[in-house]
Design a protein that fits this description.
Blueprint (H helix, E strand, L loop, with lengths): L10 H17 L2 H5 L1 H22 L4 H27 L5 H27 L10 H8 L14 H5 L2
Helix pairs in contact: 1-3, 1-5, 3-4, 4-5
Length: 159
């Protein structure tokens, strides 16, 4: 299993990217594309999911990473709510809603699993997640006992 060295390696970010692209595809449809406010709002929320995961990954601390993951999770819920409005306005079909809604649900599940992992490994700093993190994320976060690498106190005090 590959080591997580970049945010792009995180399964939750990969799935969030898939969600964002699905939302962009949906909002390019004629009626949806003309509702500028809803179109822009749902696009922004979908983009926010992947962007908050990326930003949090480089935060350097588990607590801060978790904060960004929670923001990403809330943005995924926002997308889900906005999908209902798009359905009600007949911009999308029930099948389109279901597909995008399920993608958002998958993203939230992956985010929740990563949050659980980070909470179990309460180091004060987050060096790049190791093989165990990637294994857990990609395999629905099965339990491991190997903690993330900790920085020395000297490195922590420099921040």
């Amino acid at each position: 299993m590959a080591t997580v060295r970049r945010f792009e390696d995180l399964k939750c970010w990969q799935k969030a990217r898939e969600l964002a692209n699905a939302i962009y595809d949906l909002t390019e449809q004629s009626h949806f594309a003309r509702d500028y406010k809803l179109r822009d709002q749902i696009r922004d929320a979908a983009g926010s999911v992947m962007h908050n995961i990326a930003e949090g990954f480089d935060a350097g601390y588990n607590v801060e990473f978790i904060r960004f993951l929670k923001l990403a999770r809330r943005s995924a819920s926002e997308v889900q709510s906005q999908l209902y409005l798009a359905l009600d306005r007949k911009y999308i079909t029930q099948e389109e809603l279901d597909r995008a809604y399920n993608l958002a649900t998958q993203v939230k599940q992956l985010i929740n699993a990563l949050i659980t992992y980070l909470r179990k490994h309460k180091s004060t700093t987050l060096s790049q997640p190791n093989d165990e993190t990637m294994q857990q994320t990609n395999d629905s976060m099965q339990r491991t006992n190997k903690p993330t690498n900790k920085r020395s106190n000297d490195e922590t005090n420099k921040r």
